[in-house]
Specification:
The protein is of the alpha+beta class and 151 residues long. Helix content is 17%, strand content 36%. The protein has helices at 12-15, 35-41, 51-56, 95-102; strands at 25-26, 29-30, 58-61, 64-69, 72-78, 107-111, 114-120, 127-136, 139-149.
Length: 151
């Protein structure tokens, strides 16, 4: 039986400040980080990956998936509780903890028994950043940081 999650919002500013541009990080890993440095920070060896994979590929190490663009980290997906966001959110935390740390999402989607929340950081002239949190049975299943380039 799925857990029912009820979020209550009044004054959003009383719950948590909005996501800032520089919060797109998990532990020592952050967006726009050099992909080789990110691999090392996760305990991996960049020599184990080909140049094209480091430049534009997808790498998974210890429950963290990294995606690169031009040798820089352009997205991070956490599926392990080993790493926390800058506000302390971890995979496995409750929906209430998510609400306490981040407040109301910009957008929420319900599908396949999961709830996905989108938090957008400050939009820059050429791109914007988001934190995407997927909940399953009232618990954080994944935390994703991504950077989208504006057309």
């Amino acid at each position: 039986m799925a857990a029912e999650v009820t979020m209550k919002y009044g004054d959003r500013s009383a719950i948590a400040p909005p996501l800032s541009y520089d919060e797109a990080s998990a532990g020592l890993i952050f967006l726009d980080m050099d992909m080789e440095e990110a691999v090392r920070a996760l305990g991996g060896n960049p020599d184990d990956y080909g140049e094209s994979q480091l430049e534009r590929g997808e790498i998974e190490i210890n429950g963290v998936r990294l995606g690169g663009t031009y040798s820089l980290v352009s997205w991070i997906v956490l599926s392990t509780s080993q790493y926390a966001t800058s506000r302390g959110l971890r995979v496995g935390d409750s929906a209430e903890t998510l609400e306490k740390y981040y407040g109301m999402p910009d957008v929420g989607r319900f599908e396949d028994g999961s709830v996905t929340w989108y938090f957008t950081a400050g939009v820059q002239p050429t791109f914007h950043r988001q934190m995407v949190v997927t909940l399953k049975d009232g618990r954080v299943k994944t935390i994703e940081f991504c950077q989208y380039y504006n057309d």
